[in-house]
Every structure is written in structure tokens, then in C-alpha cells.
Design goal:
420 residues; alpha/beta; Nucleotidyltransferase, domain 5; 3 domains; 5-stranded mixed β-sheet; two-stranded antiparallel sheet; 57% helix
């Protein structure tokens, strides 16, 4: 029975593409109100907003929108208007489509209607995109780009190292114990000047000192030059001269890729740390042991600053992948590590937990207890990360900085004596 006087809810589905988007509007009863295709430009967005306004969209009661992506100009403009935007996983849309058609037909218009119907029937089961501030959205862009640059740098280093193993073992021996390996400025400077082992063997001590200075080294230059000179003068197996020259040209090309990757990672790190310092949550996040500006920025980028995004600490832990997941059926019950999670947040979580072992006595004691109880290293780290995420949720919700005595309280002397 329709209640007179109350507006009928309307739901919008958007099937996006590179050059156009299909729009479908559906009412609460399932009737399709509109079906239109818009262009991927300002005129198309104006057409969409006009269509929504025509069907009752207002500032107080915006029409929710479902779309299969959380990125792009269309999503950014929809979020800027303040309306709830739901990013639905494409496999979920495909399964929902099969509920209404056994013929497995598919079209952009059908997908748009399926998205609208998902909100109509199951909106409570999905979460809208968080209402993060503009600053934290910028931090997310920079932090993810910097993390991608670090991964690209690792790939470029591995490619170069694999190439050098074919004909240039001297440079690998020279920097086998270096903290940054081939990514160090000194190694890249020497490789640029001597891309083949024959050229490296001809480097004089004075030339090596000059290269080290160009790379930014200020201490122990003469000693390091002597060490490198001795390494490059050792006896090694060699490729044929023309083959070695060709491999040297290939090495120079790979070195240029590595230089670009290193520069990108450094520049993006500087940008993200500057943006992170401007955010009001930065002092709270940096107060935790094991978190610095870069790792703290990565944490903030993934959890955002919308305080209503996570209902409780358990939701945040599940999102980070630190909380275990239980699979129970009949007499079978298994507790397993969570596979579906925010991979970027989980990656920085293991770094956070590892570094905290030398920064927090309480964290170290907690890790040791888990290891003594039978956990492996990764499981103990994940458990510690899980505990930190609960503390972080509480601190951010209440505006408190980290307190070691509250986070890892020491047992009273009576309890300690009883335990002994």
C-alpha cells in the first residue's frame, strides 16, 4: 500500500565506460523510471544531475548512486555534490544480474539497471564511499603513488641485478653488503661511469673518489675508494669483448630506468610527508611506536578521516586484514588469516609491527608472548598489528595520543609474584 504524502525513494545505477556512461533510475517498487546514456564530459555530468533533480534529488534527500568503480572524474564529481556513492564490486554485479536472467544476456543498460536494483534491495549490505576531507584524498593519491614507485624501484633493481649477474659480478660483490644495494647513489654513479667490468677495472683511485663525492658521500671516501679499487681488480670470468660491450649498453638502459624509479620514489616521499604533516591526525598517528611520517601517511591514506566509516574497532581490523576470519560448518570450525583485505594497509602494517619491536617494550613483550605460545613470526606480527589497529581506532575517535602505559599495562607486583 502506498503511503500518500511521502516521496517514493529513487535509486540510480551508473554503468561507466571510457567514452560514455549508461544511467538507470529505479523506484522502490522496482519500476524503471529512466534510462539514458550520457557522455564522459561536463555536459554529460550536467545531464545526469538534471535527471536526478527531475526525479526528486535534493540537498536534504540526495538520490544514492551505485557504480562499479571508486575512481575517476565522474565519481569525484558525484562525491563533491555530497550524495552517497556506492562502489559495487563488478563480480557482485555479475552475480546479481544472473538472479534476473537465465539467458545470461548482458548490456550496458542492463548493468546500470542491475546496479540501481542492488541499492533498492540490498543498500544496507553495502557501504558508501567515505566522506574524507580533500586533504586526506590528496594524501591517499600521493601515498599510493609513492608506494607504487617503491615497488617499481624494486622491480627495476631486480632487473638490473639479473642483468649484472650475466657478466658483471664485480659490482654485485662491491655492494652485496650495502643497505640499499644497487639503489644506492654510489652504486648507480659507478655503474653510469663504468657499465662493464673492463671499464670498472680501469677506474683509478682518484676517479673512484670523485665518483663517490658526486654521489654525496662525505666520510671515508679514500677508504671506500681503496676497497672498490681492490674489488674491481680481482679476477673474474668475462664475456667476449663485443658481447660485453653490448651488455654494457643494455645495462645503461636498465640503469636509466632505475634512476627514474629512485627519483620518483624520493620526490613522492617528500610530497606525501609534507601533506601528511598538515593533517590534524598526524600527531596522533606519529605518536605510535614504529610509525614515522611516510608509514603514518600510508595508514591515514587507507583509513581516511571520516569517523563514521568504521562502526567499531573490529570493522577497522577486518578492513586491515589483521583480524582472523572464522569458517564454521557443522562440526568443522577453522580460524584462518584474512585474505580479502586492503593490501596496501596490510603491507604497511607488517612494517609497523616489525619496527615497533625495537621502539616499544610492551610491543616486544607481546610479540615474545605470542611466539612462546606457538605463533610463527608472521602470525605474531599480525596479532601485534591487530592490537595496534584497535588502539589507533580508539585514539583517533577520542583525539588521544598513544600512551605506552595504557597500551601495554604492566602487571601488578602481586600478580607478577603469583605468576612466578
Amino acid at each position: 500500500m502506498e503511503i500518500v504524502g511521502l516521496p517514493t525513494p529513487v535509486f540510480c545505477g551508473v554503468d561507466w565506460a571510457e567514452g560514455h556512461h549508461d544511467i538507470a533510475l529505479v523506484e522502490a517498487g522496482g519500476k524503471q523510471l529512466a534510462k539514458v546514456r550520457i557522455s564522459d564530459d561536463a555536459a554529460g555530468f550536467a545531464q545526469l544531475t538534471a535527471l536526478l533533480t527531475e526525479h526528486g534529488d535534493s540537498e536534504d534527500a540526495p538520490i544514492p548512486v551505485a557504480i562499479e568503480t571508486s575512481r575517476g572524474l565522474l565519481v569525484a564529481c558525484l562525491r563533491a555534490t555530497g550524495r552517497p556513492v556506492f562502489a559495487i564490486n563488478p563480480p557482485a554485479v555479475a552475480r546479481y544480474r544472473d538472479r534476473h536472467s537465465v539467458a545470461r544476456k548482458k548490456s550496458d543498460a542492463v548493468d546500470a539497471a542491475a546496479l540501481a536494483n542492488i541499492l533498492r534491495t540490498d543498500m544496507a549490505a553495502h557501504r558508501p564511499l567515505p566522506a574524507d576531507s580533500e586533504l586526506v584524498q590528496a594524501i591517499a593519491v600521493l601515498a599510493r603513488a609513492q608506494q607504487d614507485a617503491v615497488w617499481a624501484r624494486g622491480q627495476a633493481q631486480n632487473k638490473l641485478r639479473s642483468q649484472l649477474r650475466e657478466f658483471y659480478p664485480a659490482i654485485l660483490d662491491a655492494y652485496a653488503q650495502h643497505k640499499h644495494g644497487l639503489c644506492s647513489r654510489e652504486a648507480r654513479s659507478i655503474l653510469a661511469a663504468a657499465p662493464t667490468p673492463t671499464m670498472a677495472a680501469k677506474l683509478t683511485r682518484r676517479r673512484l673518489q670523485s665518483l663517490l663525492k658526486q654521489a654525496g658521500r662525505v666520510r671515508g671516501i679514500q677508504t671506500e675508494a681503496e676497497r672498490l679499487h681492490e674489488v674491481f681488480k680481482r679476477e673474474y670470468l668475462h664475456q667476449l669483448p663485443q658481447v660485453e660491450t653490448a651488455l654494457g649498453h643494455q645495462t645503461s638502459a636498465l640503469l636509466r630506468q632505475l634512476n627514474t624509479a629512485c627519483d620518483n620514489a624520493e620526490q613522492l616521499e617528500e610530497a606525501v610527508t609534507q601533506a601528511f604533516a598538515e593533517h590534524h591526525d598526524a600527531p596522533i598517528i606519529r605518536s605510535f611506536p614504529g610509525l614515522a611520517s611516510l608509514t603514518g601517511a600510508r595508514i591515514l591514506a587507507e583509513i581516511g578521516d571520516d569517523r563514521t566509516r568504521f562502526a567499531n574497532a573490529r570493522s577497522l581490523k577486518a578492513y586491515a586484514g589483521s583480524a582472523p576470519v572464522t569458517r564454521s560448518s557443522g562440526k568443522s570450525c577453522m580460524v584462518m588469516s584474512r585474505k580479502i583485505k586492503n593490501q596496501r594497509l596490510a603491507a604497511v602494517g607488517y612494517v609497523w609491527a616489525f619496527v615497533s619491536l625495537t621502539r616499544s617494550p610492551g610491543a616486544r613483550a607481546h610479540y615474545d608472548r605470542r611466539r612462546a605460545a606457538g605463533d610463527r613470526h608472521v602470525a605474531a606480527q599480525r596479532n601485534l598489528f591487530n592490537r595496534f589497529m584497535g588502539m589507533l581506532f580508539y585514539c583517533l575517535q577520542n583525539g588521544h595520543i598513544y600512551d605506552e602505559t595504557i597500551a601495554f599495562p604492566q602487571p601488578s607486583p602481586e600478580l607478577a609474584a603469583a605468576a612466578a
